[in-house]
Backbone:
């Protein structure tokens, strides 16, 4: 089984429930509250680039980074009217992040942090973000909470459009703290009229808020705060999605 290969072509069809303008509004509110050093923003694990383009339309100079060439191909095909330069897309893993210069903020959305299954690699990824941030720069990301991943165990889901169909089941291991999504994907070939089938395996690790706070502190981040799902309040005990916002020391010197 592969991950984000076959699914890339129908990912946007299966995620029409994601309100990207609403996510961008929330992100911008945090940016405005914290005051960015500039307007260069990294969208880490950008996927098909919907949020990247949404923020670009709002005047940010965007860099999109993702590990999947197939997802990036979808992102680069999107052309939306913007006043400034088009987003730059790079194929890299989070823990090997290597940019051409500094950034003023980094966002990593839609539980992409959960997809880093090894804590050591996630720690390194956070440190790489810190390295490229300008002093005073902001790091905003969200996770699927341990509560949510644990309660997905044994559930079966169905996503369906006119020319794509996906059925997937979730299995959670308390020992490894990993939730595995086994997907059967069917997509209609417009030329032949036949359905193509593929299997994909996606996995997410359950990180506790304490885990992530410790990682952020180890990397050097300050002003670490947690929020509920697209909310301005603290997360509740049974929150499905938790947002983190942290800042790089404004007095820190960045050396690349």
Residues:
């Amino acid at each position: 089984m592969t991950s984000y290969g076959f699914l890339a072509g129908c990912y946007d069809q299966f995620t029409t429930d994601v309100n990207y303008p609403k996510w961008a509004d929330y992100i911008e509110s945090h940016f405005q509250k914290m005051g960015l050093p500039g307007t260069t923003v990294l969208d880490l694990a950008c996927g098909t680039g919907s949020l990247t383009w949404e923020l670009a339309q709002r005047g940010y100079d965007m860099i999109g980074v993702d590990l999947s060439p197939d997802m990036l191909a979808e992102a680069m095909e999107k052309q939306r009217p913007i006043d400034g330069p088009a987003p730059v897309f790079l194929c890299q893993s989070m823990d090997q992040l290597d940019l051409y210069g500094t950034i003023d903020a980094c966002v990593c959305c839609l539980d992409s942090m959960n997809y880093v299954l090894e804590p050591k690699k996630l720690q390194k990824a956070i440190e790489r973000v810190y390295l490229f941030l300008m002093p005073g720069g902001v790091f905003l990301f969200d996770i699927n909470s341990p509560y949510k991943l644990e309660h997905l165990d044994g559930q079966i889901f169905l996503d369906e459009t006119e020319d794509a169909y996906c059925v997937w089941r979730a299995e959670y291991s308390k020992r490894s703290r990993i939730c595995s999504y086994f997907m059967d994907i069917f997509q209609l070939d417009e030329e032949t009229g036949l359905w193509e089938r593929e299997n994909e395996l996606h996995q997410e690790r359950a990180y506790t808020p304490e885990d992530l706070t410790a990682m952020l502190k180890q990397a050097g981040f300050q002003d670490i705060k947690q929020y509920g799902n697209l909310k301005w309040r603290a997360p509740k005990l049974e929150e499905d999605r938790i947002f983190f916002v942290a800042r790089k020391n404004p007095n820190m010197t960045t050396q690349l």
About this structure: The longest strand covers residues 133-144. The mean pLDDT is 92. The chain has two domains: 11-144+207-247, 148-205. The radius of gyration is 18 Å.
